[in-house]
Amino acid sequence: MDGERSNEVFYDDVKVPAGNLVGEENRGFYYILTALAHERSFPVGNLRRTFEDFVDYVKEEGLGKDPLVQQSIAQLATELQALCLLCYRVTWLIQRDTSPHWEAPMVKVYMTEFMGRFSDTAMEIMGPYGQLQAGSKWVPLKGRIEKLYRHAARRNISAGTSEIQRNTIATVGLKLPR
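The structure assignment produced for this chain is given below.
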């Protein structure tokens, strides 16, 4: 859908020769969870740049005079700042050699759902121009909004669905029963 590949991987009855064992025996699932926690900590810089460029576009095109547009963009700006703070927290935990087992899923859920809200809002504000892909002579922002729209749909699935992430937050982070 967005030009990237996604996979589903199963590890059932895996046997590893003793010479190829990485880490402690019977801790493989823990190591996979740790790796996934790092994968789920998506960098937010590109998303922030796209948002800032979108705000500049709205100003240049005179679309920011509408109070509803202003409120929508202000809401997105607030959510983006909260997302950045969550990302900083995960980075801080990783730097302290603490695995962000439930904080990284928070970032993943918040980021993918923010991407959807942002791309939906941008498409609504930009109208049909927001749907144009890179290469069109009329495309604003080099087609980044259209690409974000497609990318957001896949991100809800890749690296674990939002439902799986919420289960992890509830059971691992908040110690709620399964």
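Interim note for the steering committee: The two ends are 33 Å apart (CA to CA). The chain has one domain: 24-173.
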